[in-house]
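ok, trying the design again with the full structure, not the truncated one.
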């Protein structure tokens, strides 16, 4: 039923490389808007955000996130970043702000793609992790400027990445502690074989990087074998039913 409040204890363990301190998470309390028939609950986000008692309101956090994007996630204004700022992508990082700034300035990506557009949308504040703002992108860009990797001529190819999830984590002073980018949510979309981030951009214009992480995901032999065995078992069960 709607507006049902449900409290529960959980022992979810983080599987990320960087362990999130329990004090920064809100895993112990679940406030449900309604209970699903299966699969858990739909959160009452407003109630859970109020429970966090974070000093910056959700609307202000989203406004800060958009202001940071105007400054290219802070690359054009590193004062937006906290001293312990970290950048993390699926295969790159975590990077300190010094290393990230060096990497970001080294690409000169906007000189190669005159119409580079991340097309940000879908901003929302995490009801479980205080200070985290999630948002999505649908990047589209054409390599019509400088060539890549030392090549004089551009490819003139247009790359369309799959929809990706990004985030900022703000501290209580409003500085950015974390920037996460490049996590595709539907590998079937776009023309990069499901690759996100700069790996996807390079692959989409025909200049994929020379390592597995820079190429579209492929199922392992073991997984394909496992799937075939599962299909055979299912077929055998169906025959027995007949």
């Amino acid at each position: 039923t709607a507006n049902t409040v449900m409290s529960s204890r959980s022992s979810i363990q983080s599987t990320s490389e960087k362990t999130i301190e329990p004090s920064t998470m809100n895993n112990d309390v679940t406030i449900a808007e309604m209970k699903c028939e299966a699969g858990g609950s739909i959160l009452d986000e407003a109630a859970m955000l109020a429970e966090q008692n974070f000093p910056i309101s959700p609307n202000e956090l989203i406004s800060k996130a958009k202001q940071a994007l105007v400054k290219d996630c802070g690359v054009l204004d590193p004062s937006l970043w906290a001293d312990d700022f970290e950048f993390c992508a699926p295969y790159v990082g975590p990077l300190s702000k010094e290393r990230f700034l060096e990497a970001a300035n080294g690409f000169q990506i906007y000189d190669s793609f005159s119409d580079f557009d991340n097309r940000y949308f879908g901003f929302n504040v995490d009801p479980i992790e205080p200070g985290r703002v999630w948002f999505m992108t649908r990047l589209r860009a054409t390599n019509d400027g400088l060539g890549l990797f030392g090549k004089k001529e551009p490819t003139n190819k247009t790359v369309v990445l799959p929809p990706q999830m990004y985030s900022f984590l703000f501290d209580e002073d409003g500085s950015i502690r974390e920037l996460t980018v490049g996590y595709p949510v539907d590998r079937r979309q776009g023309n990069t074989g499901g690759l996100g981030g700069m790996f996807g951009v390079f692959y989409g214009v025909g200049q994929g990087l020379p390592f597995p992480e820079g190429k579209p995901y492929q199922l392992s032999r073991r997984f394909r074998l496992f799937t075939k065995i599962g299909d055979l078992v299912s077929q055998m069960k169906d025959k027995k039913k007949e």
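Keeping the full-length input from now on. Residues 1-23 have pLDDT under 50 and may be disordered.
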